[in-house]
Amino acid sequence: MAVPPDLIGFVESAGFAAVPYGPKVQEFLEEEFLRNMWRDFFRNVWTLRGPLKVVRRVWEPIIQYWGDVSSTLLSLAEGADLLSTGINFEQPAANVAEYYDIPLATLHHFPMRANGQLVPSIPAPLVRSTMTATEWLFWRSTKEVDNAQRSELGLSKANRRTSRRIAARGSLEVQAYDEVCFPGLAAEWARWGDRRPFVGAPAMELATDADEDVTSWIAAGTPPVCFGSGSIAVESPADTVAMISATCAELGERALICFGGTDFGDVPRHDHVKVVGVVNYAAVFPVCRAVVHHGGSGTTAASLRAGVPTLILWSSADQPYWGNQVRRLNVGTSRRFSATTRESLVADLRRTLSPECTVRAREFAGRMTKPAESITTAADLLEDEVRRKAG
Fold it and tell me: What is the Cβ-side half-sphere exposure of residue 312, based on CA atoms within 13 angstroms?
């Protein structure tokens, strides 16, 4: 497995040999830029240079490491039966798979191919055309380095974006989320046949050192509202805890704060608030009243599986899309994190904790794929793809 340098230890702990490639994960989590990415994009959407500038900044770490990724994958994939890749380096991986004439399998944690279901509040044709234009912008921002790699590999110059080339090769595009999260998407993509299968969100559900202490604290009182932000650090830990504490005090709720990417060491403590680091979502979320988080695909899947309502306070990337779906499915609500105030948080939590959302969340959880099933299905698909090529 080729993974970011800061994930080597994690992959090896799972029993796999790993080599580093590309930037560290934190290079993709530049907090200030991520918080303002979508604001900057749509503020400049009416000019060509504005969106291109924003898109290029998003892809700068990928462009910078494109050559390194190509060299690493070229070495590892020689003699391989299949090359599987995530989103970040899908383009150079596709070129390497084409060079070796082996199957390519991509793993998408949200519907990143053009479709009309991603933003339910906007007419489907407009969403679809906007996504198509965005794909083109991404290709324009990486076209030079893409063709440089292809030239080194002896491949013909690309005259269309990577997503089109991947589809033309008949590559497997695994959708690592549940079909029920995006109503209508499977029907819209029916023309792709079995090339875009939905498998649910794979998750290892690993235990953490904090789990026993956290579950004991939860059991000692009323179920809390759980707050998390994944690996993205919050700008002001003290202000964040103060806002959460005041909000939950007004609502008569306890609060569990589990922000893995933030240091809360010097933050004042409150009796109705417990602050920890990383926890096992599969163990903690189901025993909470609700979950408030950043809207990452894995965290969203965990909160939907838990059967408790969700409030997404999103910042960037695919997070607003998951916020849209939580609202659409009526299992909670969402808001941009930078627009969140204590007053808005009180109102959003009242909506999220309503009987309507609580009942709907409990019902929806039964329609979600279990993590073990997601993993098995994804593995079966990869093995079938190798057999398909051999046949």
Answer: 30
